[in-house]
Design goal:
heterodimer; A: 276 residues; mainly alpha; MetI-like fold; 2 domains; 72% helix; globular; B: 290 residues; two-stranded antiparallel sheet; 1% strand; transport (chain B)
């Protein structure tokens, strides 16, 4: 940015932006702080912001009482499982649409997008009944399949916009040099496609990790990921703020950090390439 | 030019995605449509019978339905207004030169990555609780009576929580769009004597128009399906004061086991979402051409 501004203005902008930023971030900060308090301090009046007795007991307690890591692994299995499955299906599709487009490619892409617009509640009843009849309720594999299907359109789209940016001339050059389709794929395309695939993977892990319609409706306890596990804190008894905070902090930390790295990809993925 | 060989290969590569999505879309949706014309309760298996438009008639004349539609519109409209206006403001602010811009950006974007059940429970208990919440302490300190937000203003409170979740999304997209505005254009306007307000109205907002539309359409799609936040904060209550269409169908299906009624509600939700989807898809389709 070559814009010239006075230091005074810059300091003013800095102050305003930091204040607003901290207000927006505050609920997260407050959760993290509370997770290190005792239950008594968590609801103390006046609330203490930093000068309290820091403790890790809530983290120990959450794991001991409710087998936190079981749900954590469910989240990992469901988000990564559905993303990997999805990549296996979507990479070839996006590749084909980007490099051998036909007249109908655009229609197919838009049609795929339209499936994403189907509200989940429109298919809740049949999916629930199908899951019940096939014994898929409260299983990880069932959720992996559903999660893959709801994110498949986003994956195809995102990969398509990335693949589209790979210059076709490079492929032609490789073909002229006698590369077969397989060789073209392994030696030319894959290295150039890796960044796009990685971004797609990242965004989809984030989306699946936080998905809270199907996970709440199709799981009970065995396959419940963190979204559903945290929801079980909505009707507890007694003092629990510190434990709720500890469980929440552990549930959101990995994804908030991943999310910070994926800001750019998020824009591309969630706007289907309409804003870059 | 694609040869027949590569064209067949391409078709083969697309087949799994297309077939899976086709099944995902057609099978459950036609089942929903079929169920919506049945008298069918999960608790009484084997008693299904054809019911014509009865489910639709019940669903569409249920006072809860009108409240749910109203709530859905208020929630979507309120959150859209807050996030778009707030997002434009924040994007303009974050585009200014400042110290620690990257860190502020990270702070502002963070709420988007918090899972809905966590955001809702943190707001419900630690901030909005009338006894132990932080807002109650602030109110007491300032000499006011603490408010029980979620029972006095259930829908507005839920809207605030959801606006907090979606403000980062709007900000991020609008900021990305703002940063693609050419510096020359801004400078030219400045040299021609346009003040900050004129530059905002005639240069910046028109440039962001497309991104704003995209934000509105995409948020609408997601906001029509808000569910988890309602489930863990108010359960749709008190009464049906914070029940939206999604939550109403969920209650009909999984709490009252009325498959027919829930399916009719599901079809209504699909129709509503499609009205928005048509605009969004048309816009993205246009973008695909340039």
């Amino acid at each position: 940015m070559a814009r010239q501004v006075s230091t005074q203005k810059k300091v003013a902008y800095t102050a305003i932006a930091w204040i607003i930023g901290l207000i927006i971030f505050f609920p997260i900060l407050w959760t993290v702080l509370t997770s290190f308090k005792t239950e008594g301090e968590a609801i103390a009046t006046p609330p203490s912001f930093l000068f309290f007795h820091w403790t890790l007991e809530n983290y120990v307690e959450v794991q001991a009482r409710s087998d936190y890591f079981h749900h954590f692994w469910n989240s990992v299995a469901i988000s990564f499982g559905s993303t990997l499955f999805g990549l296996i299906v979507s990479v070839p599709a996006a590749w084909a649409m980007a490099f051998s487009p036909t007249k109908r490619t655009k229609d197919v892409l838009l049609w795929m997008l339209s499936t994403k617009m189907l509200p989940a509640v429109g298919v809740l009843v049949p999916i629930y009944i199908i899951f019940r009849d096939f014994g898929l309720l409260d299983t990880r594999i069932g959720l992996i399949v559903v999660m893959m299907l709801i994110n498949l359109p986003i994956m195809v789209w995102m990969l398509y916009t990335y693949f589209k940016e790979i210059p076709g001339e490079i492929l032609e050059a490789a073909r002229m040099d006698g590369a077969t389709l397989g060789k073209e794929l392994i030696y030319v395309l894959t290295p150039m496609a890796i960044p796009g695939i990685a971004s797609t993977l990242l965004l989809n892990v984030i989306l699946s990790w936080n998905e809270a319609f199907w996970t709440l409706n199709l799981t009970a306890s065995k396959a419940a990921p963190l979204t559903a596990f945290i929801a079980s804190y909505s009707s507890p008894e007694g003092l629990f703020y510190a434990k709720l905070s500890a469980a929440s902090t552990m549930a959101i930390a990995p994804i908030v950090i991943l999310g910070w790295f994926s800001q750019k990809q998020l824009v591309r993925g969630l706007t289907f390439g309409a804003v870059k | 030019m694609a040869t027949t060989h590569t064209r067949n290969a391409a078709r083969l590569m697309m087949a799994p995605s297309v077939i899976m999505l086709l099944l995902w879309m057609l099978v459950p949706l036609s089942m929903t449509l079929y169920f919506s014309f049945l008298r069918y309760n999960l608790l009484m298996p084997g008693t299904e019978s054809f019911a014509g438009f009865m489910n639709y008639r019940f669903f569409l004349t249920d006072p809860a339905f009108f409240q749910a539609i109203g709530n859905t519109l208020i929630l979507v409209g309120g959150v859209l207004f807050a996030t778009v206006v707030g997002g434009i403001g924040l994007a303009l602010l974050l585009d200014q030169p400042m110290f620690g811009q990257g860190i502020v950006r990270i702070l502002v974007i963070a709420p988007f990555f918090v899972m809905p059940t966590v955001s809702a429970l943190v707001w419900k208990n630690m901030l909005m609780n009338p006894v132990n919440g932080l807002f109650a302490w602030v109110a007491n300190t300032l000499g006011f009576q603490p408010i029980d937000f979620l029972s006095s203003f259930p829908l507005s409170s839920i809207s605030v929580i959801i606006a907090w979740e979606w403000l980062p999304f709007a900000t991020l997209i609008l900021l990305t769009s703002l940063q693609s505005l050419s510096e020359e254009q801004r400078e030219a306007a400045e040299m021609d004597g346009a003040n900050a307000f004129a530059r905002l109205i005639y240069i910046i907002l028109p440039h962001m128009a497309r991104a704003i539309t995209v934000v509105i359409l995409i948020e609408t799609i997601f906001l029509l399906s808000v569910f988890a936040e309602i489930l863990v904060t108010t359960n749709g209550g008190p009464g049906t004061q914070s029940t939206n269409l999604t939550y109403l169908v969920y209650m009909q299906a999984l709490l009252q086991f009325d498959v027919g009624g829930a399916s009719a509600g599901g079809i209504v939700a699909v129709i509503l979402a499609n009205i928005v989807a048509i605009f969004l898809i048309r816009m993205i389709g246009k973008n695909l051409e340039d």
